[in-house]
Amino acid sequence: MSEFTNVTVVREANVYFAGAVTSRTVIFPDGTKKTLGIMQPGEYTFNTGAAELMEILAGELDVKLPGNDLWDRIGGGESFEVPANSSFTMKVNTLTDYCCSFLG
Q: Does Phosphoprotein appear among the keywords (predicted)?
């Protein structure tokens, strides 16, 4: 899906790592949430509450998911899931555009 309709966008940005990762929250009529954002090249570790689906719209990164000692390369058009109550690390190789869906 290339656009969302009938949604609410939270005006204030979510800013992480001194502005290297930013996003905006989108709230759907059924109450579900997504964030749309940009990540600058760098290495970032995030902690999750809810399970997440990370869709990479453009760019390239390597991700190390919970329970995995290896890095997986993810590029534009690919996605990965992160379990609830965990942490994951990304090495962002190029400017990366993403959509994060909160799954529960």
A: no
